[in-house]
Amino acid sequence: MSDKKTQMLDAMAAHVLAHGLNNASLRPLAKAAGTSDRMLIYHFGTKNGLIEALLMHLAAQMTFGLNALLPEAPMPSRRALFETVIAATRNEMFAGYMRVWHDIVAAAAQGSATHKAAAGQIIDGFVDWIVKRLPEGEAAPERTARAILTMIDGVLLMDAVGHAEMAEAVTEAFFPLE
Amino acid sequence: MSDKKTQMLDAMAAHVLAHGLNNASLRPLAKAAGTSDRMLIYHFGTKNGLIEALLMHLAAQMTFGLNALLPEAPMPSRRALFETVIAATRNEMFAGYMRVWHDIVAAAAQGSATHKAAAGQIIDGFVDWIVKRLPEGEAAPERTARAILTMIDGVLLMDAVGHAEMAEAVTEAFFPLE
DNA sequence: CAATAAATGTAGCAAGTGCTACAAAAATCT
DNA sequence: AGATTTTTGTAGCACTTGCTACATTTATTG
Lengths: 178, 178
What we know:
The structure is a homodimer. Chain A has helices at residues 3-19, 26-32, 37-44, 47-67, 78-89, 95-109, 113-133, 141-160, 166-174. The radius of gyration of chain A is 18 Å and the shape is elongated. In chain A, helix 7 (113-133) crosses helix 8. By secondary structure, chain A is an all-alpha fold. The first copy, chain A, contains 9 helices and no strands. At the A-B interface, helix 6, helix 7, helix 8 and helix 9 of A face helix 6, helix 7, helix 8 and helix 9 of B. The structure holds a DNA duplex.
C-alpha cells in the first residue's frame, strides 16, 4: 500500500474516531484527509472499498494499542485481568475506539460481511492478548479467554448505554475473591 | 395517545425491525405507516420526536415480548436461566429486536440521550424479568441479575458479529454444572 | 349554522449523498 | 524528448435528507 493511501487512512481513522463511523460520508472524510471526495473514490474505487480499508486500518490500530497497554506477562488472577481491561477501555484514550466498536457491531448485526470480518479480526487480536495474560495453570486458556472477552464486551455495551455500574456486579458475581 | 398515532407507531416499529433503526428516514417510515413525511412531522413535531416515540414503543414491545416468553417462576439454576435466555434471543422471532438493540447501543455510544434512556428502560425491564426467574436462595438477586444480563449482552454482541460459539465458552467457564 | 381548530395533500427548498465526465497537469517509461 | 500512464481539479448529475409554505378539506365547538 502506498504511503499516500496510508496517510489518508490515518487521517480518516482519526476523523472516524471523533465523529463516528456509520454516518461518515465522503466529503467530510475527504476534508479530514486533506483531499477531495473525487480522490477517495479514485483511490478506493467505491465508498464500500474505502470503508473496508478503513475498517482494516482501525482493527490494526486497535490491536496495536491493546498490545502497547500491558506487558505480555500472566496476571495474578482472572479478576485482576478483567478489572485491568475494564479500566483500560474506560481510559479517555480508548473512548473513540469504543464508539467505533459499537458502530461496527451495529453494522454487523444488520448483516454487513465487511463489518463482521473487521470485528472478527479485532476479536482474534483480543483473544490472543488475553490468552497471553491469563493466570498460570488455566485448564483451557483459549476457552477461558473467549469467555472473559465476551464478558468484557457485555460490560462495554453497558458502559456505552450509561450503565457503568454493571461492571461491579459482574466482578462480584463472577470473579469472586479467592 | 391517540389511536392513530399508536397505529402509526406499530407500523413504523415493524418497518424498523425489518430495515434497521439508524438509517431509517422519514419518507420510508411514512410509507410503511401509510402516510406522508408531512404527516409524521405534523404528529411528532420533528424527526427526533418521532424517533423518541418510536424508541419508547419498541422498548415497551421488547419488555412485553420478554414477559410472554417464560412463566414467572424460578429456574433450577443460573446455568439453565442463562441458556434459556440465549436460546430465546436467537429465535427468529426476536432477530429484529436484536438488530434494533445494537442500533440503540451504537447511537447511545455516540452520546444520544434519547437512545440511552430507551436502553435504560429495556435494561430495567430485563433485570426485573431475570430477578423473578432466578433460582431460589440467591444472596443478592438484583446484583446477580445485573451480572447475568451483562453476560447475556456480551453473548448478544458476539452473536451479532458472527461469533455464536462464544456462548458455549461462557457457559462452560462461568456457569459450571454443579 | 357559523366560526374555529385540527388534519391532510401538493409542491418545493436548501443541503447533503455517492459517484461520474472531462480535461489538465505531473510523473513514468521507452 | 515523446508517448503513456498515473494523479488531480472543476463541475455537475440524479437522488435522498429533514422540514416548510400554502391551500384545502374535515371535524369540533359555540
